[in-house]
Amino acid sequence: MGFFSRLFSGMQKTKKNFADKLKFIFTGNEIDEEFFEELEYVLLSSDVGAAATEEIIERLKDETKSRKLKKTDDCKALLKEILIGILEENKAEEFSFPCVMMVIGVNGVGKTTTIGKLAHKFDKMGKKVVLAAADTFRAAASEQLEIWADRSRVKIVTNEQGSDPGAVVFDAIASAKARKADVLIIDTAGRLHNKVNLMEELKKISRIVERDYPEAEYHKLLVIDASVGQNAISQVELFDEAVGITDLAITKLDGTAKGGAVFAVATENQVPVRFVGVGEQVGDLLDFDAKEFVDAIFE
Ligand SMILES: Nc1nc2c(ncn2[C@@H]2O[C@H](COP(=O)(O)OP(=O)(O)O)[C@@H](O)[C@H]2O)c(=O)[nH]1
Ligand SMILES: [Mg+2]
To answer: Strand ranges (DSSP E) for the chain?
Structure first.
């Protein structure tokens, strides 16, 4: 299956939720206040979030006026343009190597799975990958990562459950350097005894990376589960405040009608959406492309 069709089929539920509602407002009638109110309702009920919705409506009002558009049908393409523009405001730069990716996010969002997919992706690109199993809190967390490592035959650094995740990261950096690895990906816990502990642990891992591997480009990739909808915003704030996120991966788009949350998250801060997850298989991680994403909602 091609790239776009994969995204397209993965996003059926969001498309149904979003596009089917849009159909009813692009009726060819005059553009009036009621039209904007209906559109606002569609966006809000599609999990686009209050801030992004307001921005979209404002831009659409301005542009319809300056382009002198009269009928609702005429501004469908314009709406698409605006949605793409919002998502492209923070575009991801190409990776430079070597790089480190600390993968963070609450429990169950898909961190370990995303890392498994990333290992495969970089391996296919001919990059040398090392994984660090620094979720030492949850039983079987490192076994889960080991299965992914075996699948792509990449090196993994682990330690016993309950051991210090900082020590795992320390060892993994040494291993990445010794092997002249291109990519080091660090799996982290999503839950500890409490939230303060978790944030302190992530800060500590971050300090080790910055101190011991300054030559590597450092990414702090926050994984968000699309099915939480706008609740994703509070997760972005929480993790950004603690360690400062640089990239987003939005998972489980295939299982939810709440893909509109991507807009909510994208307008929340200056961080680019880098990847989207559309399934549980190794190939189900796509590089995010704003235009294709919006096309998949509309087409
Ligand atoms: N449908 C679907 N399931 C996913 C996706 N990403 C992860 N999962 C599933 O979500 C569950 C939790 O994933 P896991 O990687 O263990 O989450 P973690 O706790 O953040 O490490 C697993 O059952 C994964 O197979 C995705 O993009 N789509
Ligand atoms: Mg995990």
So the answer is: 99-104, 129-134, 155-157, 183-188, 217-225, 247-251, 273-277, 285-287
Sign (positive/negative) of CA torsion 189, 108, 220, 287?
positive
**Binding site membership of 251 for ligand 1 (Cβ less than 6 Å):** yes
- Return the ligand 1 atom nearest residue 106 CA: 20
Over residues 12-37, the pLDDT tens digits come to 888 888 888 888 888 888 999 999 99
User: Which ligand is in closest contact with the Cα of 249?
Assistant: 1
* CA distance linking residue 97 with residue 220, whole number of Å: 15
- 8 A C-beta contact, residue 141 and residue 117: no
Residue nearest to atom 14 of ligand 1 (CA): 110
> Helices 141-152 and 111-124 sit at what angle, rounded to 10 degrees?
20
Low-confidence ranges of the chain (pLDDT < 70): 1-4
The predicted structure's pLDDT at residue 170: 98
- Contact of 184 with 122, CB cutoff 8 Å: no
For tokens 């040398």, what's the residue?
128
Best mutation site among 14, 107, 113 for ligand 1 pocket (most ligand atoms within 8 Å of CB): 113
Cβ of 165 below 6 Å from ligand 1: no
Give the model's pLDDT for residue 1: 58
Encoded tokens for 196? 């303060």
Cα–Cα distance measured from residue 234 to residue 230, given in angstroms and rounded to the nearest whole number: 8
| pLDDT at site 207 | 98
pLDDT of residue 17: 85
Amino acid at 126: G
pLDDT number for residue 185: 98
